[in-house]
Design brief:
The protein has no helices and 12 strands. It is mainly beta. The model has no long low-confidence stretch (mean pLDDT 86).
């Protein structure tokens, strides 16, 4: 096929094939549905049969669903002191010593606002004995955080 055909066809004209760039008769071309290109017959890129498939509705609802349970999050155990403690003391009195165990790591809020890390060596009622001596005084109502208490989530 030459670039310029020498014969004349009445009622026909020359066009450029958008895919190959060749000059061809318009009667020998078709327009691609997907791209809109004007291409010579046989050089077109027809749509794949998979493009005509339609999906079925996918019912993803679960039969008889149960609502999620209420989370009971215990988290880190936080309590407060009920009596002031002086610098150098090894005993603090807290609101509750529940879930406190020997060898637990606790943080005690000092009067300056800083936290002191200590190790529990004994529990007697609401009095917690610590291994280290307090570097500063502790006010009544200061926070005591038990870092070793288990954080649990349970679903009822």
């Amino acid at each position: 096929m030459s670039v310029f055909p020498r014969k004349v066809r009445p009622g026909d004209h020359l066009v450029v094939d958008d895919r190959t760039g060749f000059t061809v008769w318009a009667s020998k071309t078709i327009r691609e549905a997907l791209t809109g290109y004007r291409v010579e017959r046989g050089r077109d890129d027809p749509r794949h049969p998979q493009e005509f498939l339609r999906t079925k509705a996918d019912k993803q609802a679960v039969a008889n669903p149960r609502p999620p349970g209420t989370a009971n999050y215990a988290g880190a155990l936080i309590t407060a002191t009920t009596a002031a403690a002086s610098a150098g003391a090894q005993d603090i009195v807290v609101e509750t010593a529940a879930r406190f165990l020997v060898a637990d790591r606790i943080r005690i809020q000092l009067s300056t606002g800083d936290y002191f890390l200590a190790t529990v060596v004994g529990i007697s009622g609401t009095t917690v004995s610590i291994l280290e001596r307090l570097p500063e005084s502790v006010a009544s109502g200061a926070l005591v955080v038990n870092l070793s208490a288990d954080a649990t989530v349970s679903y009822s």
